[in-house]
């Protein structure tokens, strides 16, 4: 079992004409599903001018993955990376 804090960065790109729909799916469906998980600590959502959405979620252990978004909204499939905090 993984211990400590893990930050998962999840990134996806929408088709320009479907960006509002994908952002709504992320904020109304995907992230609320994470927030009820027992190891979840916090989540932030970011968007960019080039139709990308980034979700940073913090976990006390192994992160729960976001569900797959509706395929007709995405120009490129999602990518995810896990990070751990660095003491300095």
Q: Which features does this protein show?
A:
88 residues, globular
The CA-CA distance between the termini, in Å, is 25 Å
- Shape descriptor: globular
Beta strands, count? 4
Overall mean pLDDT: 95
Give the proportion of residues in helices.
Answer: 10-25%
Rg of Cα set: 13 Å
The number of distinct helices, counting runs of at least 4 residues, comes to 1
Low-confidence stretches: none
Label the structural class. alpha+beta
| Element order: H for helix, E for strand | EHEEE
Biggest sheet statistics: 4 strands, antiparallel
Q: Strand content of the residues, in percent?
A: 35-45%
Neighbour order of strands in the largest sheet:
2-3-1-4
Describe it for me?
The protein has 88 residues and is α+β, with helices and mostly antiparallel strands. It has a domain at 17-60 and 71-81. Helices cover 19% and strands 42% of the residues. The protein contains one helix and four strands. The chain starts with a strand and ends in a 5-residue tail after the last strand. The model has no long low-confidence stretch (mean pLDDT 95).
